[in-house]
Amino acid sequence: MGWILEANDLHLSFKGVKALVGVTFAVGEGEFFAVIGPNGAGKTTLLNVLSGVYEAEKGEVVFLGQDLKGKTPQERARLGLGRTFQGLEIFRGMSVLDNVKLGAELAFPSYSLALPKAEREWRLRAWAEEVLDYLHLSPFRHAPAGMLPYGLQKRVEVARALAGKPRLLLLDEPMAGLSLEEKQDLARFLLDAREEWGITLLWVEHDLRAVLELSDRVLVLSYGEALYYGPPEGVRKDPKVAEAYLGQV
Length: 249
Ligand SMILES: Nc1ncnc2c1ncn2[C@@H]1O[C@H](COP(=O)(O)OP(=O)(O)OP(=O)(O)O)[C@@H](O)[C@H]1O
Description:
Residues 5-248 form the ABC transporter domain. 36% of the residues lie in helices and 25% in strands. By secondary structure, it is of the alpha/beta class. The protein has 2 domains: 1-80 and 166-249, Rossmann fold, CATH 3.40.50; 89-165, no CATH class. Strands 6-7-8-3-9-10 form a 6-stranded mixed β-sheet, sandwiched between helices. Strands 2-1-4-5 form a 4-stranded antiparallel β-sheet, with helices on one face. β9 (217-222) and β10 (225-230) form a beta hairpin. Bound molecules: adenosine-5'-triphosphate. Adenosine-5'-triphosphate is lined by residues 14, 17, 19, 37, 39-45.
């Protein structure tokens, strides 16, 4: 399998608290890859290191064959490494369409700045509308994003990230706070986006059932260390994982 992302021996501590301890894994092109683990295991820290919010003290992150050391989150996003956050990161007063258009800007490389303004705006809007349509958000396109029910706001956030046409999208607990039906809808949209636009997905998620059902491979973290790395079928059988979750799996 061709790797789109490789993380080698990542270490990071916060004032003596070891958040990542020698974490090594790789994500294959087109995979749906999950990172799970108990609270405080280092999952969000790992996403922050991959997306450039933090720099690892040791180890390297290689994306599409390129070492990301020293690259800012914006530079990483431009290379095709997208991200959604725990909690909502949308502009509440802005319309759904404008939120998604902001994300779509990333999908239009700088040369398109040379296009006439109207032409560029038209293309941007057409692509944003396509993404909205895909995620069944078109009926809400003119509503201020903050006025929508929570589940739809989460979907707007995912739409904005997908509109940037990332090669790899990092998702931090995309299903938190969603109803079962909303979770099933989101799962379908993510799987469809992978199929349609060739986006690789790496998600941190607490809903173990959804993770084991949807993911191709899983990395389990506990106290910053990788406990398990492999197919979902092995997660429940692994004694170290069972111990870390104290019977939760
Ligand atoms: N900016 C920071 N400053 C100090 N300590 C931090 C910081 N970020 C994370 N930590 C610590 O690092 C460890 C890992 O935290 P992290 O948020 O990555 O875990 P997590 O697996 O995402 O947890 P959760 O499931 O609760 O979101 C924890 O002990 C946390 O307190």
